[in-house]
Structure formats: structure tokens, C-alpha cells
């Protein structure tokens, strides 16, 4: 018996081979002009009659939970194949393949610290205790009885990307640890009020029901501002990878603090100083001091098209588009340069522009076919301007590791190939 | 329940509601009380000062045995790292160009070691070690870093008393740190 890793391509089912062949355009990241080649051998193009019009299609209800077209099978999460282990690891959203601001649930980035637990919601409980008048235990059904709310927010891993080479090739490689969704749940403030906070309550320690029992301390101000206990994402119940059946959500804060599989909230007078908030998720400066409790994700943007790994088919019109976001509020402006940073112009922002959410920007562009460097920079409603990598490195050094929100330029070669300009 | 008791409870609820406003009663009446036993079973948080550390004690020598069985396959026999993080050494490198972050060189509080080992280690069977063995492994890791002697036995009090070398090197978040 041959090794399962040593798969012979000829053994793949015929349909799968056909789809793979048809989906080459997506898998290779070619941007434009792939359609003509795909249909060249058939009579599907004008003036012919496409084969899919000559017979009925698949029966209704053939997929009771739908899946993308097989021609999109290359649009999947991006995960390194060379990690030492996959229990505490991450997978990235293919940002360069997506439009708009909402990340499909199946493509939402993942970061787990002890694997993905399979939790029976009927046997899951949230315990709320510590500096409260009435320690309480809630079932998921209990939490769904509270007044609910839905809000659109991004979630971003704190290390997205690091500060040192090798830098990623694609937008996903670089900053694919950000995604955005509509979250539905109950305001954490309501649940805390249900238990009654004591006056000395200053922090809330959140704990997950995963094998890491991941623990982070959250300042009470954030808990009472806009924190949510979330049970649904983009209209359906959370996926296991996103904390099913219950997660904390802290808009604008580094992702690991939005504790998944939430099982306990411990109201305290000071942080618990867990391993995750001392030995990890602290930012080491060149002088050997390290910043702790650095919660916010600062303003950031990335051009997703054209971006690394893609190719412009020809000179002429191309839309430059991407995403911008800030943990401190709304995006006020996004500026784009198409001449290696000499001149900057305002991109158009797609409505809705929401607080602590991805914002889509666009700029029409005529490419003259000469080598170019394009880049975007976000300015948020506080007036903060997204910095360059050089500016960040000058202050933070290479060992800071987290919270890299640098401008990331793309180089476009004369043949249209797009690559990372800093790599 | 007798009428007098019921009247007393009703009066207490009214007084509470008047006395301290909305927080005196559950606004929605959702959820049920958590009992002390339930809280004790789930609350595994250990403060940086060692608060909530359980009874029990463990020695460096016992920790060496448990570590060899449960930890060394990922962290190395002497905590030199592998699939898992490096745990020992690196003291004095944190401000250098290539810092080596370990328990001994970077972690600010020793009780966090107990907290983390108990809740998350070993990775294939977290919360499986006895409290005594968690003390013992904590003691062994601290010994690998030269922070307790080879004959040490740690309990709640002595673990909390271990001063970690990097403790005073943590500062607040000074961002925004790039200003235009």
C-alpha cells in the first residue's frame, strides 16, 4: 500500500481533475484574461451554445449546506506546510481573493493555542464569578434570552505580520490574520450587570474551554464599552474554529483576547498575569524592556488587488483596491501612491464605513506598462497615520514581534508580475 | 417557607433595590447562582502573588522524573526546546540583538508557571497532572534556570517567593509610538 502522502495525480477522480484543470486561473493567481484559454477547446463561447445550457443542471437541494463553485476550489485558507506542529498555530484568510468587507465563515482566519475543541452546547456553561454580587452560571439558551445585538467588526491577530524577513509573497502571507464578520450576541455589560459588579471590580479574566484553557485579562472599561458575548457569526452559529458555542469579542483589541469557547469570566481587582499576557503577547523593545497589556490594533491597510502573486495582463485600466481598518475607530481616509511614494491621492471609501471594521477602498488607475510601486496608507478618525516599516523598526526594533501595522508596497514589473517590494 | 420569612425576604429585596440601585437585583433574572463548590472546581486562576495556589508541594527531584516522562519529548531533557518552547537559559539576552525568551530569562512571575502547566500542559493531556506534580515540574523548570536549588521543594508560599530576574522589565503600552 502506498503512503497516503504520495498521491498519484492520475488516481484522482475524473471530475476532480477536470475541476482542477478549469480552476487553474484561480490557483495560479492570474488576474485577468484567463477565461478565453479555459473555453478554447469547446464551443461554449460566442457564437456557440454553452454545454451547461443544453441539459438541466444539478437538482435543487443537492447540497443542503452549500459550497462554492468547484472552479473556486483554490480559494482556501492559507497555512504553512512546514510548521513544527499544528495544535498551536494559525491559518490565514486569502485576502487577495475576496471582495467587499465580510469574510466568509469558511475563510475566516484561525489562531488556536490548544487545537479546536468539539463542544456540545447543551453541556457548555459560562460561569461568572469573583467581584460580583451574585456569581452566576449561564447556559447557551440563557445567554440567547438576553437582548441581542449584531455588529460588524474586524478581528486581527496581534502578530500580523512579524518584523523580520522572510516577508510574505502575497497579501494573505503578509496580513492574512485579519478577517471581518457580523457578530451577534449579547452586550457583556448586560451580563455583568446581571451579576452586579462590586466597586473594586477593575478587570475581567476570560477563560476558554479549549485544551489551552486560554486566559486573558480585560480591563473593565472595555467590558463595559463595547465587548460582546457572541454566539453567531455572519448569521449562523459560530464555527468550531471561531469558538462554538460562545466566544468573547473585543472590537479593536488583538485577536487572542477575544477568548473562544468561553467558559468563565472572573471579575478581579487586577490582571491575572497569565502566561499569554506575560511570556507571550508582550512587545520586546531594543532596550530589553517589554510592553505589556498592549491591546489595540492600530490603523492599517493593504492593497489586495493588484497584489503579490498576481499579474496584470496588459497596460491600461486597472482598479486598485484593498482594505483598511483601525482598532481605534473608523477609517477617515486611505491614501494610495502609484509612484513609489512620491505622490499620494485619496482612494474612494466604500460605504458603510464602520467603526473597528474593515473598510473597502478603491482607486481607478491607468497602468502605463512601466515598472511601478503601489501602496496604501490608512488614516483613522483619531488622525493616526499608518507608518512605514522603517519608521516602526526605528522605534521598536526587530524583536517587537507583535502589532506590526506597516504600509506594505507592491512592485509591479514591466511584464505585469506583482511582488512584495520589501522582500 | 413561613409567611414571616417570605415577608422578610420581600422586604430585603425592596430595601436592596432602593438602597443601591439597579445593580442590587438581576435586571433580567437570567442564569442561576454558581455554588462555591462549582466555582472552586473551575477557578484555576493563580495570581502573580501566588493567590489561589493549592495545597501540596513538589520537589525538584520529583519534577525531574515527571518532566522526563511528560515534557521532555517536546521541550528537551534540559528544557532546551524542540517542538515546544525553550524553557531554560537565555538570561542576560533579552536586550540583545537575538534575545532568547525562556521562563528564566523572560517570565516575570513564578506562580504563572504553576498556573500554565496545570491548565495547559502536557499539551496532549492538560489538567491531568496532580497539584503535587505541577509543583514538582515548576520546581524543576526553575532549577533548570538556576532560580532554585537542586534540593528545593516548592509549595504555595515558596513558589510565590521566587523572584524572577526579568520581573521589573515590563512597561506600559506607549503607543502610538510613531508620530508624524
UniProtKB/TrEMBL annotation, chain A:
Enzyme class label: oxidoreductase
Ranges of residues in domain Moybdenum cofactor oxidoreductase dimerisation: 296-407
GO biological process terms held by the UniProt record: sulfur compound metabolic process
The keyword Hydrolase is assigned to this record: no
Tagged with keyword RNA-binding: no
EC number: 1.8.2.1
Pfam families listed in its UniProt record: Mo-co_dimer, Oxidored_molyb
Alphabetically ordered keywords of this record: Metal-binding, Molybdenum, Oxidoreductase
Gene Ontology MF term list: heme binding; molybdenum ion binding; molybdopterin cofactor binding; sulfite dehydrogenase activity; sulfite oxidase activity
Name of the molecule in the record: Sulfite dehydrogenase
Cofactor dependency: Mo-molybdopterin
Domain (Oxidoreductase molybdopterin-binding) ranges: 113-271
InterPro entries linked to this entry: Ig_E-set (IPR014756), MoCF_OxRdtse_dimer (IPR005066), Mopterin_OxRdtase_euk (IPR008335), OxRdtase_Mopterin-bd_dom (IPR000572), OxRdtase_Mopterin-bd_sf (IPR036374), Sulfite_DH_SoxC (IPR030835), TAT_signal (IPR006311)
Record CDD domains: bact_SoxC_Moco
Automatic annotation (TrEMBL), chain B:
Pfam families in alphabetical order: Cytochrome_CBB3 (PF13442)
Region forming the signal peptide: 1-24
Sequence intervals crossing the membrane: none
Domain of life: Bacteria
GO function terms (MF aspect): electron transfer activity; heme binding; metal ion binding
Ranges for domain Cytochrome c: 58-145
Protein name, per record: Cytochrome c
Source lineage: Bacteria, Pseudomonadati, Pseudomonadota, Alphaproteobacteria, Hyphomicrobiales
Amino acid at each position: 500500500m502506498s503512503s497516503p502522502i504520495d498521491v498519484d495525480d492520475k488516481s484522482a477522480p475524473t471530475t476532480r481533475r477536470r475541476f482542477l484543470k478549469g480552476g487553474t486561473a484561480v490557483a495560479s493567481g492570474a488576474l485577468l484574461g484567463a477565461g478565453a484559454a479555459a473555453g478554447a477547446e469547446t464551443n461554449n463561447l460566442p457564437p456557440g451554445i454553452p454545454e451547461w445550457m443544453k441539459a438541466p443542471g444539478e437538482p435543487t437541494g443537492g447540497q443542503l449546506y452549500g459550497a462554492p463553485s468547484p472552479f473556486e476550489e483554490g480559494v482556501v485558507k492559507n497555512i504553512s506546510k512546514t510548521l513544527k506542529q499544528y495544535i498551536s498555530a494559525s491559518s490565514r484568510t486569502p485576502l487577495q481573493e475576496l471582495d467587499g468587507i465580510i469574510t466568509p465563515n469558511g475563510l475566516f482566519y484561525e489562531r488556536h493555542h490548544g487545537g479546536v475543541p468539539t463542544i456540545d452546547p447543551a453541556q457548555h456553561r459560562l460561569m461568572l464569578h469573583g467581584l460580583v454580587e451574585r456569581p452566576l452560571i449561564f447556559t447557551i439558551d440563557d445567554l440567547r434570552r438576553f437582548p441581542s445585538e449584531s455588529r460588524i467588526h474586524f478581528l486581527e491577530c496581534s502578530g500580523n505580520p512579524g518584523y523580520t524577513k522572510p516577508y510574505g509573497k502575497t497579501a494573505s502571507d503578509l496580513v492574512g490574520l485579519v478577517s471581518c464578520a457580523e457578530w451577534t450576541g449579547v452586550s457583556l455589560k448586560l451580563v455583568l450587570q446581571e451579576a452586579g459588579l462590586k466597586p473594586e471590580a477593575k478587570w475581567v479574566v476570560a477563560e476558554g474551554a479549549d485544551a489551552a484553557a486560554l486566559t486573558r485579562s480585560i480591563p473593565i472599561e472595555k467590558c463595559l464599552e463595547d465587548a460582546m458575548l457572541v454566539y453567531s457569526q455572519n448569521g449562523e452559529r459560530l464555527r468550531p474554529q471561531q469558538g462554538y458555542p460562545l466566544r468573547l469579542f473585543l472590537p479593536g483589541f488583538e485577536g487572542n483576547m477575544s477568548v473562544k469557547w468561553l467558559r468563565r469570566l472572573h471579575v478581579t481587582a487586577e490582571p491575572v498575569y497569565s502566561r499569554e499576557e506575560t511570556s507571550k503577547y508582550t512587545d520586546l523593545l531594543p532596550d530589553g524592556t517589554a510592553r505589556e497589556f498592549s491591546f489595540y490594533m492600530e490603523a492599517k491597510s493593504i492593497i489586495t488587488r493588484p497584489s503579490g502573486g498576481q499579474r496584470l495582463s496588459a497596460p491600461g485600466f486597472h482598479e486598485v483596491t484593498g482594505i483598511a481598518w483601525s482598532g481605534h475607530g473608523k477609517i477617515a481616509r486611505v491614501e494610495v501612491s502609484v509612484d513609489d511614494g512620491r505622490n499620494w491621492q485619496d482612494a474612494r471609501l466604500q460605504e458603510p464605513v464602520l467603526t473597528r471594521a474593515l473598510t473597502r477602498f478603491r482607486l481607478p488607475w491607468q497602468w502605463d506598462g512601466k515598472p511601478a510601486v503601489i501602496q496604501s496608507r490608512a488614516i483613522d478618525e483619531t488622525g493616526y497615520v499608518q507608518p512605514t516599516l522603517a519608521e516602526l523598526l526605528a522605534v521598536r526594533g526587530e524583536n517587537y514581534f507583535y502589532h506590526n501595522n506597516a504600509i506594505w508596497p507592491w512592485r509591479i514589473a514591466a511584464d505585469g508580475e506583482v511582488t512584495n517590494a520589501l522582500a | 417557607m413561613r409567611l414571616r420569612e417570605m415577608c422578610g425576604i420581600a422586604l430585603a429585596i425592596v430595601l436592596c433595590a432602593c438602597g443601591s440601585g439597579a445593580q442590587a437585583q438581576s435586571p433580567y433574572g437570567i442564569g442561576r447562582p454558581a455554588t462555591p463548590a462549582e466555582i472552586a472546581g473551575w477557578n484555576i486562576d493563580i495570581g502573580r502573588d501566588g493567590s489561589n495556589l493549592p495545597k501540596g508541594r513538589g520537589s525538584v527531584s520529583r519534577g525531574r522524573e515527571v518532566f522526563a516522562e511528560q515534557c521532555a519529548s517536546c521541550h528537551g531533557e534540559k528544557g532546551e526546546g524542540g517542538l515546544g518552547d525553550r524553557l531554560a537559559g537565555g538570561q542576560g539576552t533579552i536586550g540583545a540583538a537575538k534575545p532568547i525568551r525562556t521562563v528564566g530569562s523572560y517570565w516575570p512571575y513564578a506562580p504563572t508557571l504553576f498556573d500554565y502547566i496545570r491548565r495547559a500542559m502536557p499539551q496532549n493531556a492538560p489538567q491531568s497532572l496532580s497539584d503535587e506534580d505541577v509543583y514538582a515540574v515548576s520546581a524543576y523548570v526553575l532549577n533548570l534556570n538556576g532560580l532554585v536549588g537542586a534540593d528545593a521543594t516548592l509549595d504555595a508560599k515558596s513558589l510565590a517567593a521566587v523572584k524572577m530576574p526579568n520581573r521589573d522589565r515590563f512597561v506600559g503600552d506607549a503607543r502610538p509610538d510613531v508620530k508624524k
